[in-house]
Amino acid sequence: MTPTSRALIAGAVSASAMNTVTYLDMAVRARPASSAGEGSAGRLADLAHVGLKALR
User: Fold this and answer.
1) What are the angstrom distances between the C-alpha of 50 and each of 3, 10, 27, 41, 55?
2) Residue 55's pLDDT is what?
3) What is the reported pTM?
4) What is the pLDDT of residue 26?
5) Number of independent structural domains in the chain
6) Residue 54 is assigned to a structural domain of this protein
7) What's the pLDDT tens digit per position in 5-30?
């Protein structure tokens, strides 16, 4: 296995672990998902004069 393959696998495993822990924390504490990403994307879109379509 090449070093690049190992790095890709390690990255995928760590991202999966982080997502699992995050969702477990949300479930245990009964917290909703954060809207920070949505707010940041909206501000960047406004600065770039780009419209974002709502997916709801």
Assistant:
1) 40, 35, 35, 10, 16
2) 54
3) 0.59
4) 95
5) 1
6) no
7) 999 999 999 999 999 999 999 999 99
* One-letter-per-residue 3-state SS of 1-56: CCHHHHHHHHHHHHHHHHHHHHHHHHHHHCCCCCCHHHHHHHHHHHHCCCCCCCCC
Per residue in 28-53, pLDDT (tens digit) is 999 998 899 889 999 999 999 988 87
> How far is the C-alpha of 45 from the C-alpha of 40, rounded, in Å?
9
Judge whether 25 lies within some domain. yes
Q: Which domain holds residue 34?
A: 3-47
Tell whether 14 is covered by a domain. Answer: yes
| Number of neighbours of residue 54 by Cβ within 10 angstroms | 4
Give domain status of residue 32, yes or no: yes
CA distance 21 to 11: 15
Length of the chain: 56
